[in-house]
Fold these 3 entries.
Entry 1:
Amino acid sequence: MGGADAGGHDNTANGDNTANGDNTATAVHAAGSPDTVVAWAPGRVNLIGDHTDYAGGLVLPMAIDLGTTVRFDRGGTHLRLRSGRRRPLSLDLPVAASVARSLSDLEPSWGRFVAAAAIEVGATVGGDGEITTTLPVGAGLSSSASLELAVALALGFDGSPLELARLGQRAEHAASGVPCGIMDQLAIAAGTTGHALLIDCATERYQPVVIPDTVEVWVLHSGVKRRLADSAYAERRAATESAAELVGPLAQANLDDIESIPDPVLRRRARHVRSECDRVQRFAAALATDDPTTAGELMEASHASLRDDFEVSVSQLDELVVALSARPEVFGARLTGAGFGGCVVALARPGSNLSGVGSTAWLVRASDGARRITG
Ligand code: GLA
């Protein structure tokens, strides 16, 4: 899901915190022909503001220095791409006919994201090359959105970051069937080094928020591949829409109105969205005033709300948050992304080493957004 896995990539060769998409892309370009095109798109981690984007609320994600590189020699009527170091899988897609294809039949499954992006771009010329990634797949770091945006750029997309994000969102809906919001794609399209992005999803306006050098951002995998994510995600989105029919747009809804929603489940879902939007605002202010203690407390409150009111956590995520929060070098931690498994994000003092916590840990840095590197 926007969340979805771009399934099947093999990121093991580079799945550590030294990975750098730029280096990969430059090395590939050096070996390419004049018709070689190389595009790179980061993944994203959401610092705070989950399950608020599709409800027209606030989010604060950042593009990270792990991502997807698409490199091919342009030409021909087919898009032929390989991916995976240990067990490479190949996709062979006739670009002109891609519109007529049923995406759900495509194998390997990551080909669905490639095809959906190609359809959205309206590609007529194909190419022959490969996809490499330094992103963990299925971890909630938006590997599928990263792939879609890198493919769109490699196929010649030319437009603003917001237009690229909207294209990626349409591709994600088509490829995965999951009704994701705009957060992942916009974070990836409009990322800025050293900054997170405060996005108002009602207006799709965004502004960079500097990450102060008193904190570092860690991503820690719970070891649980996300489960039930797609159907539960759609169900959560539908619940927020039902609640909004009762009390108006949830991001600004009156708190008393929310507390008087008769259905207790809808009430909890609405309470999460409303309170999470407040936390995003306060978190952005805490970063701006270099107050990591307050930022960390807001992350803990966000996790509790996602666990208790929105009910998208699992015990392994809860335990990881508790373990991280007990460490003096950690300001705060919370699940990040859709939930139901995947990763926790933690804000920690510079120089901390959290690599023994969780099944895998990455120290990530805020990166620039998706771009064509050559071609
Ligand atoms: C997934 C979706 C996003 C967003 C998050 C939860 O990542 O793709 O649009 O809804 O879940 O915040």
Entry 2:
Amino acid sequence: MKDNIVTIDNSIFPAKLEFSQNFNVAVPFIDRHLKEGRGEKVVINVHRGSVVTYATLAEHVNRAGNALLELGVSPGDRALMVVKDAPEFYYVFWGAIKAGIIPVPLNTLLRAKDYTYMVVNSEASAVVYSPEFSDEVETALKAASHKPKVVLPSEGSGETLAKHMAGSSSALNPAPAKPDDDCFWLYSSGSTGNPKGVVHAQKDMVVTSQRYAVETLNMTSEDINFSAAKLFFAYGLGNAMTFPLWVGGEAVLFAGPPTPADMHEIIEEYRPSIYYAVPTLYAAQLRALEVNDADLSSIRVCISAGEALPPDLLRRWNSKTKLPLLDGIGTTEILHIFLSNRETDIRPGASGKPVPGYQARIVNEDGNEVSDGEAGSLMIKGESLLKLYWQNPEKTAESLRNGWMFTGDTYYRDEDGFFFCCGRSDDMLKVGGIWCSPVEIEAKLVEHPQVLEAAVVGRADDDKLIKPEAFVVLNNITDASEELSNELLEFCKNGLARYKYPRWFNFVDDLPKTATGKIQRFQLRS
Ligand code: 3UK
């Protein structure tokens, strides 16, 4: 077999995927399109900005890979990316992969202390960032005990990656790689402790693109994809980059925060055929549509993931827009959606059924499969599971058992085969589709001089979407006031990533605890 190719046997379903022994995934995702005559086709449409063709993309990917190598980043090294949704994201990500370097896209909403941890934990050789994030990134690097060799803004004035790219060759041979070799990482957060580096292999993006985008959504080169979820998130990475690149389609990129007004304006102007968002945003869009109608007629299907889509929200979206909305669950570890509703098979309130190529099991505490209707721990087997958690063999052994991954979610299956989410098996919250650790918010609250103790739990808002609620014990209960809750709110907003603040504050005399002093969050929830 030739190098760097995937053979797809469509005579069976799910199609059989076969990878050449030598396999650098940048070739089928980037270079293949030139051979297939797609060079002049548009791949990226930047909102109020440039248009990038497949030929320009391939050239800039090569320049970015060469620039990183020339700057002294070696194959196998990690290149951290704090990069907004823009063509540079594609250039750095794929340039690194083609050069054998491991890109690690980071959440651009994080704070300096989060980045410090990731710089040290990954022992990164390079950090590339959009100039917008320079404050947090520079503060993080000053505090880090590990110093990356290369630290560069992607663009702007002075020394930038763009400047190095302009002086680098536009030709680059793909670094030798095997289908199961390390390709890229994403960081995933847990309820306690630090984020974990999730290591994915070369073949994994092919698997998610084929299984979910092609075999579940029937995506083709005609589709224009617009994702409100950003590229740094595994959800957005698939939606707005790997899926369109796999089918030879198109993506619309927007760098700003996803407000309903901006989403509606972009949909009207760029006319996407597939739209991806999180439940919180669909709820906000519905409220906005009550006031200002929008033409969403270009969309053939809407996708929801990141947190459970409440059935009532799905019904309201259907009745207002007449558009199908498919809920599906994915994880960073499995890379993209593995249980999904289908356009012809939707069950409100359910995450759907397994995506082709994935198997799902629900087990009890003894590891035995439960019967239909009974809740248990959701486990998944498939071809895109993480290889391991970086330098965390305990967590890897705990999560991966004989090729099955524990998702940490509690689910039941009904007699028709639909999977229903009952919540997390830990205390973690999904807020607007992004992880929120109660422990982290509590630690921030306790830093306030008037706070003795705090506990944070999830509470459903009017749309049945979970948001953080704080229970606070003050040093002096007589300090309790609306003024103090506002002060604590600002304290959290300034000290944490901006989506992590509690939406409600309760001042209480004490917190329910176990004999060993552990806060019993389940008591506060009820
Ligand atoms: C929760 C859901 C109910 C669930 C993701 C699409 O969210 C993604 O990845 P993360 O690693 O979080 C994974 C966890 O989020 N969750 C996600 N979707 C749903 N719960 N219904 C849903 N539809 O707790 C899961 O374990 O941030 C989403 C594609 C790729 C992804 N990585």
Entry 3:
Amino acid sequence: MCGIIGYLGNKKALPLLIDGLERLEYRGYDSAGIAVYCRGKIVSIKSVGRVNLLKEKIAARRGVDGVIGIAHTRWATHGKPSEKNAHPHCDCKKDIWVCHNGIIENYKELKDWLIKRGHKFRSETDTEVLPHLMEEFYDGNLENALVEALKRIRGAYAVVAISKNEPEKIVAAKNSSPLIIGVGEKEYIIASDVSAILSRTKKVIYLNDGEAVVMGAGGIKFLDLSKKKVSTNLSGRTQVLDWDLTSAQKSGYPHFMLKEIFEQPESIANSLRGRLITDDGLVKLGGLEAVKDQLSGIKRILISACGTAFYASLAGEYMIEEKAGIPVEVDLASEFRYRRPIIDKNTAFIVVSQSGETADSLAALREAKEKGALTLGIVNTVGSTIARETDAGVYNHAGPEIGVASTKAFTSQLSIFALIVLFLARQRQMSLAEGKNLALELEKIPEKIKQILKTAPQIKKIAAKYKNFKNFFFLGRKYNYPVALEGALKLKEISYVHAEGYGAGELKHGPIALIDKNFPSVFIATENSVYEKTISNIEEIKARGGPIIAITNIGNKKIARLVDDIIYVPKTIEMLEPILNVIPLQLLAYYIGTMKGHDVDKPRNLAKSVTVE
Ligand code: F6R
């Protein structure tokens, strides 16, 4: 949610900032702007809309050839998308320029105070209080001004700033919103995530919450804001990324979303790699080793997440309860801490997050930790705040997910849940034979996904047939209920078509009233323990004239008499079905979205990595 990049080095900053903004654009894309120090002044250029509009504006300007600058791509919170609300924002004198990601909760009172002291505001944003506060406390040292400003604000922030008066440095700080420093050859890049850094360096430092940093020609200096301690020690802080640039590029696909859908055989193989001990029906999860004994005594599990990760968690609940026999509750992270969850030392709390930065998920994690739960993470982004704040966890290793609509992260989250289930269940009731079978079936998943992906042309035809319908139901039972919810979410977020996911048995309790020939239903009807029940639900819809698309197993001919269109998937064990069954739904949403002419990688009103509550 909002992308920040700053550059300081010996190369022209502007092209590098633009390249970084293009890579960060998926985090927010309603306006963008840059500020570059050039021969004694700071040049700022801003534009409403996508980064390419900013690029066009910049192309008309000459001589912006400075080697230090900051840039921002915005997802609006305070103040509508407009040029004046676009970052970077500056103080009255246009000396200090700031980009910010997050929310300053007490901005109103600070703004009133600053106005009384004569400051002139140009935007409606909360961010603008920062440069004015820095102006107020500026004593010839930019980092001191930043520290003084931060003392007065409440809320979440990742902030980077430059000043005309100290053009040799970038200062930055973080609290809850991500900031990562890339350490290159005689250059530093500071950004909201690694995708903007990878083209320059793989050496990164993750800034901690409550920490500020000063980067300059003389090196780098960290300031611990609460302990007021300064450190210049980089040892132990620099990590080398194992993501490469191709993983953050489209590699010939028209959209990141399609690339990420087609990457799933590989991303799941990466999630499983080195973790299954198939012959013994066991799993080796390095990230859980330290808490292995504690986990064997766990009596209850709470899971919390948002959006797609929440739906993966619902499937995780079914898996853990059925296979490991541990009671599980799943909460939306945005609700969790407002409902007084009951937690004791025998409770494990699992937070699931692709980005590892989602504000609600982070807040839920902190609440669970505060109450004494053992906290575990299923996180994709290495070094992210959630990954660092959990007691233990399992990384997804799915590679960067750039498309705003989550696809490969979902199937990876389901795969990691399967590994955790194997881990917990084999500590408890699961036999060697069942463990072995689960491990074997998991190993076969990537190949089965490849088979489903081959049916993309048929799914595209189905998408063409249904693209003009205005409403859809997505329906499934048991493990396929969360898949139905995820299928509906995918369609609504990238096609802007109204879609609702339901447990298929629930329709007759009200929603079936909506069914007519213009209201299609997508049934997930694979041959499992609830297949017969699902077929009864299909009959109910057919009897009322609703068009039906069914996802079922290869070889199921009988279903054809009931439904209008069929998408076939290979068989697997019931617990792993969601990993396969969601793939056609991702493709269906993708094709309907693109046929409607939408930018499926950057759907309207959305942004990747939701760092506001
Ligand atoms: C939907 C989607 C969102 C995210 C949600 C949580 O396609 O991407 O619903 O799943 O915002 O994000 P993470 O997993 O980063 O915590």
